[in-house]
Design brief:
eight-stranded antiparallel barrel, alpha+beta, globular, single chain, Alpha-Beta Plaits, about 170 residues, ABM domain-containing protein, Dimeric_a/b-barrel
Length: about 170
């Protein structure tokens, strides 16, 4: 089910609280750039339509062209980056271009999905790396560091490492 969410043009609902448990469920484990322990934040992304849709899948980029299918317990490092910019279209275009041209070729990069807010212009970037060591190694790459610095200067960002949770069922509800 979660892998079906990330299709360009698909409308989704992004909830910063527990939804119906059938979508992609992410639990915040670590915040970057914010001192102190993370608050309990559960994010759920589910297919939606009409007034229930809050975001649209704008772009999906993967290292090998395979679909982005986050799964519980796959060992990947999953980041969620909430980006609020005065020029949302620039933030999307810049991130997509850098990911296509450079980031997707870095060792350990799995893929990313960019979701654009329908009413707010907020950009959500869900990124997966093979593991935490590959993400740390990316920061040794000069162009990757410049990309991150440019986004931080041009927009407000809230980045966290999330754990992907299983779908909620009667047994684990």
């Amino acid at each position: 089910m979660a892998g079906d969410i990330f299709q360009v043009g698909r409308e989704v609902a992004v909830s910063l609280r527990e939804g119906d448990g059938t979508g992609l469920r992410l639990l915040l484990r670590e915040r970057f750039g914010t001192p102190g322990p993370p608050e309990d934040r559960l994010v759920e992304i589910t297919p939606a339509a009409g007034p229930d849709a809050t975001h649209t899948v704008a772009e999906v980029i993967t290292a090998g062209g395979a679909p982005l299918v986050p799964a519980p317990g796959d060992g990947r490092t999953t980041l969620l980056n909430l980006i609020t910019a005065d020029r949302p279209s620039w933030a999307l275009d810049f991130n997509v271009a850098e990911t296509r041209e450079h980031i997707r070729h870095l060792p350990g990069f799995v893929g990313t999905a960019f979701l654009t807010g329908r009413a707010t212009g907020e950009l959500i970037e869900l990124v997966q790396w093979r593991d935490a060591a590959d993400l740390r190694a990316a920061f040794a790459d000069e162009r990757f560091r410049a990309h991150v610095d440019t986004v931080r200067r041009a927009a407000r960002t809230d980045v966290g490492r999330y754990e992907i949770l299983p779908h909620r069922t009667e047994e684990n509800a």
